[in-house]
Design goal:
Layout (H helix, E strand, L loop, with lengths): L1 H8 L3 H15 L8 H7 L4 E5 L6 H11 L3 E6 L6 H11 L5 E2 L4 E5 L5 E8 L16 E4 L7 H8 L14 E6 L9 H5 L3
Parallel strand pairs: 1-7, 2-5, 2-6, 6-7
Antiparallel strand pairs: 3-4, 4-5
Helix pairs in contact: 4-5
Length: about 200
């Protein structure tokens, strides 16, 4: 250990910064699985659609992005009772429920790289419920099980996809996770993601 400390002390500022970046990567609590999940993570698209069967890693991708890449996150389901599984997945990835204020639908924590992060969990079961999220910016919006959501509500919430003034370089993106639509109401996704 003594030799390592001596070596680190001799690094240039640029080398020391790179070592710290690599150490932060090793502290990262989640990594995408190779294949479609990794492709979605690395996508440069502002809006990503990620579909598939149950157990295909859709919610894991949403949580992984939230806890490793973003700072002000909104994760939405059509009904609030459906959020329980997402809370459990965040707890699994973080290894704790510290910072979760479930009654408020907010989870605050410090990311693996020292950045403060807040995840807001929300739902909009009735028309007009999205109004309670007006004016609250998020740099990541997740619409989990988007096939069960109303298109107008999703488009309204997309209007708040932006970073805040103190984080001008933060990437902003939206992630739609879904299964194939089984109702007429969910077919809007087909047109939304059509070429």
């Amino acid at each position: 250990m003594k030799g390592l400390k001596e070596t680190l002390a001799k690094l240039t500022p640029k080398e020391a910064k790179r070592v710290e970046e690599l150490r932060a990567i090793l502290r990262k609590p989640w990594y995408a699985t190779p294949g479609p999940q990794m492709e979605a993570l690395l996508s440069k698209a502002d809006v990503t659609g990620f579909g598939g069967a149950a157990g295909g890693g859709k919610t894991a991708l949403a949580v992984g992005l939230a806890v490793t890449e973003h700072r002000t996150v909104g994760i939405f389901r059509q009904n609030g009772t459906e959020l329980r599984g997402i809370y459990d997945e965040v707890a699994r990835v973080l290894g704790t429920r510290d910072g979760l204020a479930e009654h408020k639908g907010v989870w605050t924590f410090q990311r693996f790289d020292g950045q403060d992060c807040q995840i807001e969990f929300g739902s909009f079961p009735s028309p007009g419920d999205v109004e309670k999220y007006r004016g609250r910016p998020h740099d990541l919006l997740v619409f989990d099980e988007a096939q069960s959501m109303r298109e107008l509500d999703v488009r309204f919430l997309m209007g708040w996809l932006r970073t805040t003034g103190d984080r001008p370089d933060q990437r902003c993106r939206a992630l739609f996770t879904f299964n194939p639509p089984t109702t007429v109401e969910g077919r809007w996704l087909v047109a939304y993601f059509a070429p």
